[in-house]
From TrEMBL:
Record keywords, A-Z: Glycosyltransferase, Transferase
Name of the protein this chain belongs to: UDP-glycosyltransferases domain-containing protein
One MF term in the entry's GO annotations: quercetin 3-O-glucosyltransferase activity
UniProt family annotation: Belongs to the UDP-glycosyltransferase family.
Lineage of origin: Eukaryota, Viridiplantae, Streptophyta, Embryophyta, Tracheophyta
Annotated InterPro entries: UDP_glucos_trans
Family annotation (Pfam families): UDPGT
Amino acid sequence: MLPPIYSLGPLNLLLNHQVYHNDCKQLRSNLWKEDPICLEWLDSKQPNSVVYVNFVVITVMTPEQLTEFACGLANSNHSFCGGWNSTIESISFGVPMIWWPFFADQQTNCWFSCTRWGIAMEINSDVKRDDVAGHVRELMEGEKGKAMKKKALEWKKMAEETTNTPDGSSYDNLNHIINQGLLH
């Protein structure tokens, strides 16, 4: 007989509700030290007014493509910053996305985010600054962006429901895993 399979996640939300030993209070799900200057800058902005740019761990782009992204972001007239995180964090916090898929699971995540979940839009693989600026403006100001934000908040609520209550599947599954580990 095969062992049971338990789904967990989003872990970033689930970990917010766990009780830690004092020695573990400073541990986070991020390997990088937080930059207080960046956090102060973000705190000075209105909620939901900053575009988060993420090119993931593995991205190959030409200098021309990088220039198009940079100019497009600047031309959008919206504040932006960059970092390293993933689709699950965006969904967990109700943040709609703009995709430029390149590698590994990005195409699948893009397809689901855009087509099935309604929380993202995709930039053409032949990226142009006007497209970047237009997508950012649509996401931040347009009707399609508002609809995606509404959908993203629905996904956020579902993610929270799995982690915030003892009836949530991730909350319950984590307890099953811990109890199984304690029994063996």
